[in-house]
Amino acid sequence: MDTLIGSYADSDTPPPTQFKRLAILGLGLLGGSFALAAKHAGLAQEVVGYSKSPSTLKAAKAAGIIDHGADSALHAATGADLILLAVPVSAIGPLLKQIRLGVAQYALVMDVGSTKSDVATAAQEALGDKSRQFVPCHPIAGSENSGLQYARSALFDGRRVVITPMVENPDRFVEVATQIWEAVGGVVSVMSPQDHDAAFAAVSHLPHLLAFAYVYAIARQSKGGSYLQLAGPGFRDFTRIAASDPTMWRDIFQTNGTEVLEQLQLFKQAIAGFEAQMRQGNWSVLESLIRQASQSRKDWASPSPADDIV
Ligand code: NAP
Predict the structure, then answer these.
(1) Do 116 and 214 fall within a single domain?
(2) pLDDT tens sequence across 82-102
(3) For residues 263 and 7, which has the higher predicted lDDT (pLDDT)?
(4) 2, 88, 102, 108: which has the fewest Cβ within 10 Å?
(5) Model confidence over 187-208: pLDDT tens digits?
(6) DSSP code of 201?
């Protein structure tokens, strides 16, 4: 870590990447995992946490995931040189407003939210001139299981982390954010918030919407329960993500609605095409469509193991 260490000396000097105090706001799957990974990597001398429910804070402290619990987000952030927000995307703006006064001039602030344009806008509104210190991030790591109990230090190992810098971010802050994610095992890609949201609408948000709607459609049929008893690996693979957290996904559809609806239109065109071939009995055309999809799926080299979602 020595080569990563910078200086605290003045306000324009970006933070070091071995930090004195890491503050994690939101101690669920992502926040808890980052705390564990940061400890494992020796990234911070102390880890202070804050979470909405006192029971979560207590559990994080008892499990040694954090060193200290704070009674407010502001108290956790005050004096920290690295602040990570790991809360639902709709909570990021309000939380940044709460901590604004406590964000030191040398602190680096990051999030892990699944959508980025809205988060960047919320940060600009909430932090004002301190938004230069906020570097939006999205680790492509997680699972359909939310909550601190699923946190693990290896969550980010080998996983892509997308950083979507804002124009006001000094390059050095983006470099330090990159080093931090690499230190916890991530592989960093940099793109604009808009490109991020368009891409993840296609490869993450739409598939979740489809999985939720599909399971909803099956479950509400009169014989749906008995059909589900017969379901096998195909159903399991296609629907695993339908067990994801409802609040988190409502937030994502809300904050990236335009891009998701655009992808939904493209999907509806495709499914209408498949349906038309079936209705018209054009089985060879249908087979050709399936063949193209099958080949695309075979050509796709998964960047990470199958237990990843977002
Ligand atoms: P999670 O396990 O449900 O954790 C979220 C935590 O945030 C909960 O522990 C909750 O606290 C806390 N929280 C909620 N509102 C808060 C507030 N206003 N102030 C302080 N704490 C608050 O969710 P997660 O899966 O870690 O997701 C966190 C973020 O990561 C989301 O923005 C999500 O989009 C993003 N993300 C998730 C995944 C994934 O696969 N799950 C992957 C990549 C990115 P209490 O427990 O104290 O009530």
Answers:
(1) no
(2) 999 999 999 999 999 999 999
(3) 263
(4) 2
(5) 999 999 999 999 999 999 999 9
(6) I
Average pLDDT over every residue of 78-83: 97
Domain hosting residue 223, numbered range: 196-307
Q: How far, in Å, CA of 129 to CA of 131, rounded?
A: 5
Q: How many H helices and E strands in the chain? A: 13, 9
Among 57, 146, 255, say which to mutate for ligand 1: greatest number of ligand atoms within 8 Å of CB: 146
Token pair 């339908």 is found at 242
Within-domain flag for 6: no
* Boundary (domain end) residue, out of 143, 161, 191: 191
Query: Which pLDDT band, with edges at 50, 70 and 90, does 10 fall under?
Result: very low
**Pair (39, 184) in one structural domain:** yes
| DSSP assignment letter at 157 | T
Residues in Cβ contact with 141 at an 8 Å cutoff, skipping those fewer than 6 apart:
30, 33, 155, 156, 159, 161, 186, 304, 308, 310
Mean of pLDDT over the chain: 93
Instruction: Please tell me whether residues 234 and 296 are part of one structural domain.
Output: yes
Residue 111 to residue 87: CA distance in whole angstroms = 8
Residues 213 and 279 in one domain: yes
Determine what percent of the chain falls in helix, strand and coil, rounding each to the nearest 5: 55, 10, 35
Tell which one of 53, 55, 83, 87 to mutate to probe ligand 1, the residue whose CB is within 8 A of the most ligand atoms.
87
pLDDT at res. 9: 38
Give Cα separations from 146 to 14, 107, 111, 157, 246 (angstroms). 33, 28, 17, 18, 10
Rg (CA), the chain: 21
**One-letter amino acid for residue 46 of the chain:** E
Rounded to whole angstroms, the Cα distance separating 186 from 208 reads: 23
